[in-house]
Amino acid sequence: MSVVVIGTGHAGVAVAAELRAAGFAGSITLLGEEAEPPYERPPLSKTGRCVPLRPDAFYERHAIEVVLGARVVRIDRSGRELRLASGARLPYRNLILATGARPRRLRLPGEGLSRVLELRSLADARLLDQRLRPGLRLVVVGGGYLGLEVAARAQGLGCRVTVIEAGRRLLPRVAGEALAEHLRVRHASAGITVVTGARVIGLPPGRVELAGRPAVRCDAVLVAAGAEPRAELAAAAGLGCEDGILVDRRGRTGDPAVHALGDVTRRPVMGYGEALRLESVPSALEQARAVAADLCGLPERPGEVPWFWSDQHELKVRTAGLPGGAQIVTRADGDALAVFHVRDGIVRAVETVNAAREFAEGKRLIGERVRVTEFQEEFRKAALPGRCRMASSPHSESAQIQ
Q1: Which domains occur in the chain, in start order?
Q2: pLDDT by residue (tens digit) across 176-186?
Q3: Quick one: which of 190, 192, 224, 315 could link to 147 by a disulfide (CB 3.0–4.6 Å)?
Q4: Where is the FAD/NAD(P)-binding domain (predicted)?
Protein backbone atom coordinates (compact mmCIF):
# COMPACT_ATOMS: atom_id res chain seq x y z
CA MET A 1 0.00 0.00 0.00
CA SER A 2 1.41 3.40 -0.97
CA VAL A 3 0.63 6.87 0.34
CA VAL A 4 1.66 10.03 -1.50
CA VAL A 5 1.52 13.35 0.34
CA ILE A 6 1.51 16.61 -1.64
CA GLY A 7 3.09 19.22 0.61
CA THR A 8 6.11 19.31 2.91
CA GLY A 9 4.94 21.84 5.48
CA HIS A 10 3.88 21.08 9.06
CA ALA A 11 0.78 19.17 7.94
CA GLY A 12 2.49 17.00 5.33
CA VAL A 13 5.46 16.03 7.49
CA ALA A 14 3.25 15.48 10.54
CA VAL A 15 0.88 13.10 8.76
CA ALA A 16 3.83 11.05 7.46
CA ALA A 17 5.25 10.82 10.99
CA GLU A 18 1.85 9.92 12.46
CA LEU A 19 1.33 7.19 9.87
CA ARG A 20 4.56 5.51 10.94
CA ALA A 21 3.69 5.98 14.62
CA ALA A 22 0.31 4.30 13.98
CA GLY A 23 2.02 1.28 12.41
CA PHE A 24 1.61 2.03 8.71
CA ALA A 25 4.06 -0.24 6.86
CA GLY A 26 3.53 0.83 3.25
CA SER A 27 5.58 3.32 1.25
CA ILE A 28 5.27 7.04 2.02
CA THR A 29 6.34 9.73 -0.45
CA LEU A 30 6.37 13.43 0.37
CA LEU A 31 6.28 15.82 -2.61
CA GLY A 32 7.46 19.40 -2.08
CA GLU A 33 7.55 22.24 -4.62
CA GLU A 34 10.45 24.03 -2.95
CA ALA A 35 14.07 22.95 -3.22
CA GLU A 36 14.50 23.37 0.55
CA PRO A 37 14.11 20.40 2.93
CA PRO A 38 10.93 20.67 5.06
CA TYR A 39 11.08 23.62 7.48
CA GLU A 40 8.89 25.39 10.02
CA ARG A 41 6.99 28.43 8.75
CA PRO A 42 6.03 30.22 12.02
CA PRO A 43 9.63 31.30 12.79
CA LEU A 44 9.83 33.10 9.43
CA SER A 45 7.75 36.01 10.75
CA LYS A 46 8.76 35.77 14.41
CA THR A 47 12.55 35.46 14.09
CA GLY A 48 13.37 35.09 10.40
CA ARG A 49 15.26 31.86 11.13
CA CYS A 50 15.02 28.64 9.12
CA VAL A 51 14.19 25.77 11.48
CA PRO A 52 14.05 22.23 10.00
CA LEU A 53 10.85 20.36 10.78
CA ARG A 54 12.79 17.13 11.30
CA PRO A 55 16.47 16.10 11.10
CA ASP A 56 17.42 14.54 7.77
CA ALA A 57 18.01 11.23 9.56
CA PHE A 58 14.34 11.10 10.60
CA TYR A 59 13.12 10.53 7.05
CA GLU A 60 15.70 7.84 6.39
CA ARG A 61 15.04 6.10 9.70
CA HIS A 62 11.28 5.93 9.01
CA ALA A 63 11.55 5.14 5.29
CA ILE A 64 9.85 8.35 4.21
CA GLU A 65 10.90 9.46 0.74
CA VAL A 66 11.11 13.23 0.33
CA VAL A 67 11.06 14.51 -3.25
CA LEU A 68 11.91 18.22 -3.54
CA GLY A 69 11.29 20.54 -6.49
CA ALA A 70 8.28 18.44 -7.49
CA ARG A 71 5.23 20.45 -8.60
CA VAL A 72 2.03 18.49 -9.18
CA VAL A 73 -0.08 19.89 -12.02
CA ARG A 74 -2.90 17.36 -12.17
CA ILE A 75 -4.60 14.69 -10.10
CA ASP A 76 -6.03 11.81 -12.13
CA ARG A 77 -8.45 10.32 -9.63
CA SER A 78 -9.80 7.64 -11.97
CA GLY A 79 -6.31 6.33 -12.69
CA ARG A 80 -4.98 7.18 -9.21
CA GLU A 81 -2.04 8.96 -10.70
CA LEU A 82 -0.33 12.35 -10.29
CA ARG A 83 1.13 14.30 -13.17
CA LEU A 84 4.11 16.52 -12.37
CA ALA A 85 5.35 19.66 -14.13
CA SER A 86 8.46 17.71 -15.13
CA GLY A 87 6.29 15.36 -17.19
CA ALA A 88 6.70 12.48 -14.74
CA ARG A 89 3.73 10.44 -13.54
CA LEU A 90 3.41 9.04 -10.05
CA PRO A 91 0.83 6.42 -9.04
CA TYR A 92 -0.77 6.36 -5.61
CA ARG A 93 -3.02 4.07 -3.62
CA ASN A 94 -3.95 6.79 -1.15
CA LEU A 95 -3.37 10.50 -1.66
CA ILE A 96 -3.09 13.17 1.05
CA LEU A 97 -3.35 16.84 0.11
CA ALA A 98 -1.41 19.22 2.36
CA THR A 99 -0.90 22.04 -0.11
CA GLY A 100 -1.32 24.84 2.45
CA ALA A 101 -2.17 28.45 1.65
CA ARG A 102 -0.65 31.42 -0.17
CA PRO A 103 -0.62 35.13 0.70
CA ARG A 104 -3.79 36.92 -0.36
CA ARG A 105 -3.09 39.45 -3.10
CA LEU A 106 -4.61 42.93 -2.97
CA ARG A 107 -4.53 43.31 -6.78
CA LEU A 108 -3.57 46.97 -6.55
CA PRO A 109 -1.44 49.18 -8.81
CA GLY A 110 2.22 48.70 -7.91
CA GLU A 111 1.80 45.39 -6.10
CA GLY A 112 4.24 43.69 -8.47
CA LEU A 113 7.12 46.08 -7.76
CA SER A 114 10.27 44.63 -6.18
CA ARG A 115 9.89 46.78 -3.06
CA VAL A 116 6.50 45.15 -2.32
CA LEU A 117 7.10 41.93 -0.39
CA GLU A 118 5.09 39.02 0.98
CA LEU A 119 5.94 36.31 3.49
CA ARG A 120 5.04 32.67 3.22
CA SER A 121 8.16 30.81 2.12
CA LEU A 122 11.81 30.69 3.12
CA ALA A 123 12.66 32.53 -0.12
CA ASP A 124 10.26 35.32 0.94
CA ALA A 125 11.89 35.47 4.39
CA ARG A 126 15.38 35.74 2.93
CA LEU A 127 14.30 38.57 0.65
CA LEU A 128 12.67 40.39 3.57
CA ASP A 129 15.79 39.99 5.71
CA GLN A 130 17.90 41.53 2.97
CA ARG A 131 15.76 44.68 3.23
CA LEU A 132 15.43 45.07 7.00
CA ARG A 133 18.03 47.50 8.31
CA PRO A 134 18.18 50.40 10.79
CA GLY A 135 16.31 53.44 9.51
CA LEU A 136 14.36 51.56 6.81
CA ARG A 137 10.80 52.91 6.47
CA LEU A 138 8.67 49.75 6.37
CA VAL A 139 4.91 49.74 5.86
CA VAL A 140 3.08 46.56 6.84
CA VAL A 141 -0.28 46.29 5.10
CA GLY A 142 -2.45 44.16 7.36
CA GLY A 143 -2.88 44.17 11.13
CA GLY A 144 -3.20 40.42 11.61
CA TYR A 145 -0.82 38.19 13.55
CA LEU A 146 1.73 37.79 10.76
CA GLY A 147 1.88 41.51 10.08
CA LEU A 148 2.27 42.34 13.77
CA GLU A 149 5.01 39.75 14.25
CA VAL A 150 7.01 41.18 11.36
CA ALA A 151 6.38 44.72 12.61
CA ALA A 152 7.77 43.84 16.04
CA ARG A 153 10.84 42.13 14.57
CA ALA A 154 11.53 44.98 12.14
CA GLN A 155 11.21 47.56 14.92
CA GLY A 156 13.66 45.55 17.00
CA LEU A 157 16.14 45.76 14.09
CA GLY A 158 15.86 49.55 14.01
CA CYS A 159 13.31 49.99 11.23
CA ARG A 160 10.70 52.75 11.27
CA VAL A 161 7.47 50.77 11.01
CA THR A 162 3.90 51.70 10.11
CA VAL A 163 1.10 49.11 10.27
CA ILE A 164 -1.98 49.84 8.14
CA GLU A 165 -5.18 47.89 8.83
CA ALA A 166 -8.41 48.30 6.83
CA GLY A 167 -10.58 47.27 9.80
CA ARG A 168 -11.46 49.59 12.64
CA ARG A 169 -8.99 47.75 14.90
CA LEU A 170 -6.13 45.27 14.79
CA LEU A 171 -6.84 41.54 14.41
CA PRO A 172 -10.44 42.18 13.30
CA ARG A 173 -11.16 38.58 12.22
CA VAL A 174 -9.30 36.53 14.80
CA ALA A 175 -9.26 38.30 18.19
CA GLY A 176 -11.48 40.14 20.61
CA GLU A 177 -11.47 43.87 21.33
CA ALA A 178 -9.49 43.66 24.57
CA LEU A 179 -6.61 41.64 23.14
CA ALA A 180 -6.45 43.81 20.00
CA GLU A 181 -6.24 47.00 22.08
CA HIS A 182 -3.65 45.48 24.42
CA LEU A 183 -1.40 44.68 21.46
CA ARG A 184 -1.99 48.07 19.81
CA VAL A 185 -0.83 49.86 22.95
CA ARG A 186 2.31 47.71 23.17
CA HIS A 187 3.23 48.26 19.51
CA ALA A 188 2.62 52.00 19.82
CA SER A 189 4.81 52.15 22.94
CA ALA A 190 7.63 50.56 20.89
CA GLY A 191 7.39 53.41 18.38
CA ILE A 192 5.36 51.58 15.72
CA THR A 193 2.70 53.73 14.04
CA VAL A 194 -0.63 51.88 13.87
CA VAL A 195 -3.23 53.19 11.41
CA THR A 196 -6.67 51.54 11.44
CA GLY A 197 -9.76 52.08 9.29
CA ALA A 198 -7.50 52.85 6.32
CA ARG A 199 -8.01 51.32 2.87
CA VAL A 200 -4.94 50.96 0.67
CA ILE A 201 -5.63 51.93 -2.97
CA GLY A 202 -2.16 51.91 -4.51
CA LEU A 203 1.48 50.94 -3.97
CA PRO A 204 3.48 53.25 -6.24
CA PRO A 205 7.25 53.68 -5.73
CA GLY A 206 8.10 55.30 -2.43
CA ARG A 207 4.67 55.43 -0.84
CA VAL A 208 1.44 53.68 0.07
CA GLU A 209 -1.70 55.47 -1.13
CA LEU A 210 -4.78 55.46 1.09
CA ALA A 211 -8.41 56.28 0.32
CA GLY A 212 -9.24 59.73 1.71
CA ARG A 213 -5.98 60.05 3.64
CA PRO A 214 -2.44 61.30 2.96
CA ALA A 215 -0.06 58.75 1.44
CA VAL A 216 2.49 57.09 3.73
CA ARG A 217 6.12 57.42 2.59
CA CYS A 218 8.19 54.23 2.74
CA ASP A 219 11.19 52.31 1.44
CA ALA A 220 9.55 48.87 1.47
CA VAL A 221 6.09 47.34 1.88
CA LEU A 222 5.09 43.98 3.30
CA VAL A 223 1.61 42.86 2.27
CA ALA A 224 0.21 40.69 5.06
CA ALA A 225 -3.48 40.76 4.18
CA GLY A 226 -4.32 37.17 5.05
CA ALA A 227 -4.02 33.89 3.17
CA GLU A 228 -6.06 31.90 0.71
CA PRO A 229 -6.08 28.09 0.42
CA ARG A 230 -4.14 26.46 -2.39
CA ALA A 231 -7.08 24.29 -3.42
CA GLU A 232 -6.77 24.53 -7.22
CA LEU A 233 -5.54 20.96 -7.67
CA ALA A 234 -8.41 19.59 -5.60
CA ALA A 235 -11.01 21.72 -7.36
CA ALA A 236 -9.72 20.73 -10.82
CA ALA A 237 -9.94 17.09 -9.75
CA GLY A 238 -13.61 17.54 -8.84
CA LEU A 239 -13.23 17.41 -5.05
CA GLY A 240 -15.56 19.54 -2.95
CA CYS A 241 -14.08 22.97 -2.24
CA GLU A 242 -15.46 26.08 -0.56
CA ASP A 243 -12.79 28.44 0.75
CA GLY A 244 -10.67 25.31 1.09
CA ILE A 245 -11.01 21.58 0.54
CA LEU A 246 -14.04 20.26 2.42
CA VAL A 247 -13.19 17.36 4.75
CA ASP A 248 -14.81 15.57 7.67
CA ARG A 249 -13.34 15.09 11.16
CA ARG A 250 -11.06 12.33 9.85
CA GLY A 251 -9.75 14.35 6.93
CA ARG A 252 -11.81 12.48 4.34
CA THR A 253 -12.78 14.19 1.09
CA GLY A 254 -15.54 12.99 -1.22
CA ASP A 255 -13.08 10.47 -2.70
CA PRO A 256 -12.28 7.48 -0.42
CA ALA A 257 -8.72 7.45 -1.78
CA VAL A 258 -8.04 11.13 -1.01
CA HIS A 259 -7.59 12.83 2.37
CA ALA A 260 -6.62 16.44 3.04
CA LEU A 261 -5.39 18.41 6.04
CA GLY A 262 -3.83 21.67 7.14
CA ASP A 263 -4.39 25.27 6.04
CA VAL A 264 -5.94 24.17 2.75
CA THR A 265 -8.95 22.51 4.41
CA ARG A 266 -12.30 23.45 5.93
CA ARG A 267 -13.32 21.00 8.64
CA PRO A 268 -15.76 20.51 11.53
CA VAL A 269 -14.35 21.94 14.76
CA MET A 270 -15.27 20.47 18.13
CA GLY A 271 -17.95 22.49 19.93
CA TYR A 272 -18.52 25.11 17.24
CA GLY A 273 -21.05 23.43 14.96
CA GLU A 274 -19.65 24.52 11.61
CA ALA A 275 -16.86 23.83 9.15
CA LEU A 276 -13.96 26.22 9.60
CA ARG A 277 -10.56 26.81 8.05
CA LEU A 278 -8.03 27.07 10.87
CA GLU A 279 -4.55 28.28 9.93
CA SER A 280 -2.42 27.00 12.79
CA VAL A 281 0.18 24.36 13.57
CA PRO A 282 -1.89 22.77 16.38
CA SER A 283 -4.81 22.34 13.97
CA ALA A 284 -2.55 20.68 11.40
CA LEU A 285 -1.13 18.31 14.02
CA GLU A 286 -4.62 17.35 15.21
CA GLN A 287 -5.68 16.61 11.64
CA ALA A 288 -2.50 14.61 11.02
CA ARG A 289 -3.35 12.29 13.91
CA ALA A 290 -6.94 11.94 12.65
CA VAL A 291 -5.92 11.12 9.07
CA ALA A 292 -3.29 8.61 10.17
CA ALA A 293 -5.80 6.88 12.46
CA ASP A 294 -8.32 6.66 9.63
CA LEU A 295 -5.86 5.19 7.12
CA CYS A 296 -4.62 2.68 9.69
CA GLY A 297 -8.12 1.57 10.68
CA LEU A 298 -7.87 2.95 14.21
CA PRO A 299 -10.78 4.44 16.21
CA GLU A 300 -11.68 8.07 15.65
CA ARG A 301 -9.81 10.40 17.97
CA PRO A 302 -11.74 12.91 20.12
CA GLY A 303 -11.69 16.50 18.88
CA GLU A 304 -9.25 18.94 20.45
CA VAL A 305 -9.69 22.56 21.54
CA PRO A 306 -8.26 24.76 18.75
CA TRP A 307 -5.44 27.01 19.89
CA PHE A 308 -2.84 29.38 18.50
CA TRP A 309 0.25 31.31 19.59
CA SER A 310 2.12 34.44 18.53
CA ASP A 311 5.32 36.13 19.74
CA GLN A 312 5.49 39.94 19.50
CA HIS A 313 8.20 41.97 21.26
CA GLU A 314 8.47 40.26 24.68
CA LEU A 315 4.79 39.27 24.58
CA LYS A 316 3.71 35.61 24.46
CA VAL A 317 0.22 35.57 23.00
CA ARG A 318 -1.75 32.36 23.44
CA THR A 319 -5.41 31.83 22.51
CA ALA A 320 -7.73 28.83 22.69
CA GLY A 321 -11.21 28.41 21.30
CA LEU A 322 -12.91 30.90 19.00
CA PRO A 323 -13.61 34.34 20.53
CA GLY A 324 -16.37 36.80 19.70
CA GLY A 325 -20.00 37.68 20.35
CA ALA A 326 -19.92 36.84 24.05
CA GLN A 327 -19.49 38.15 27.57
CA ILE A 328 -15.84 38.85 28.26
CA VAL A 329 -14.05 38.50 31.58
CA THR A 330 -10.58 40.03 31.77
CA ARG A 331 -7.58 39.90 34.06
CA ALA A 332 -4.82 42.44 33.50
CA ASP A 333 -1.51 43.11 35.23
CA GLY A 334 1.09 45.16 33.35
CA ASP A 335 1.92 43.33 30.10
CA ALA A 336 -0.12 40.29 31.20
CA LEU A 337 -3.71 39.87 30.04
CA ALA A 338 -6.33 37.13 30.14
CA VAL A 339 -9.69 37.41 28.41
CA PHE A 340 -12.36 34.73 28.83
CA HIS A 341 -15.29 34.53 26.41
CA VAL A 342 -18.62 33.02 27.40
CA ARG A 343 -21.34 32.16 24.90
CA ASP A 344 -24.67 30.43 25.54
CA GLY A 345 -23.62 30.01 29.15
CA ILE A 346 -20.45 28.08 28.24
CA VAL A 347 -16.79 29.13 28.33
CA ARG A 348 -15.91 29.19 24.62
CA ALA A 349 -12.55 30.97 24.34
CA VAL A 350 -9.60 32.40 26.25
CA GLU A 351 -7.07 34.95 25.00
CA THR A 352 -3.89 35.53 26.99
CA VAL A 353 -0.70 37.56 26.92
CA ASN A 354 2.16 36.48 29.20
CA ALA A 355 -0.36 34.46 31.20
CA ALA A 356 0.49 30.77 30.86
CA ARG A 357 -1.58 29.65 33.85
CA GLU A 358 -4.75 31.35 32.63
CA PHE A 359 -4.24 29.95 29.13
CA ALA A 360 -3.90 26.38 30.41
CA GLU A 361 -6.92 26.78 32.70
CA GLY A 362 -9.00 28.41 30.00
CA LYS A 363 -8.19 25.66 27.51
CA ARG A 364 -9.31 23.09 30.08
CA LEU A 365 -12.56 24.95 30.78
CA ILE A 366 -13.35 25.11 27.06
CA GLY A 367 -12.70 21.40 26.58
CA GLU A 368 -14.89 20.53 29.56
CA ARG A 369 -17.64 22.95 28.42
CA VAL A 370 -17.81 24.59 31.84
CA ARG A 371 -20.96 26.67 32.40
CA VAL A 372 -20.93 30.28 33.62
CA THR A 373 -21.87 29.56 37.25
CA GLU A 374 -19.10 26.97 37.63
CA PHE A 375 -16.68 29.23 35.80
CA GLN A 376 -17.47 32.14 38.11
CA GLU A 377 -16.57 30.09 41.17
CA GLU A 378 -13.36 28.75 39.60
CA PHE A 379 -12.42 32.23 38.44
CA ARG A 380 -12.88 33.65 41.96
CA LYS A 381 -10.55 31.00 43.34
CA ALA A 382 -7.88 31.71 40.73
CA ALA A 383 -8.15 35.51 40.63
CA LEU A 384 -5.54 37.61 42.40
CA PRO A 385 -6.70 40.67 44.41
CA GLY A 386 -7.10 43.73 42.21
CA ARG A 387 -6.79 41.81 38.96
CA CYS A 388 -10.40 40.81 38.27
CA ARG A 389 -12.95 42.85 36.38
CA MET A 390 -15.84 42.24 33.98
CA ALA A 391 -16.16 43.79 30.55
CA SER A 392 -19.20 43.11 28.37
CA SER A 393 -19.39 43.16 24.59
CA PRO A 394 -22.54 44.56 22.88
CA HIS A 395 -23.83 40.99 22.53
CA SER A 396 -22.84 39.71 25.96
CA GLU A 397 -24.86 37.99 28.60
CA SER A 398 -25.62 39.74 31.88
CA ALA A 399 -23.81 37.60 34.43
CA GLN A 400 -21.36 39.49 36.62
CA ILE A 401 -18.34 38.59 38.70
CA GLN A 402 -17.71 40.77 41.72
Answers
A1: 2-102+227-295 (3.50.50.60), 116-223 (3.50.50.60), 314-392 (3.30.390.30)
A2: 999 999 999 99
A3: 224
A4: 1-288
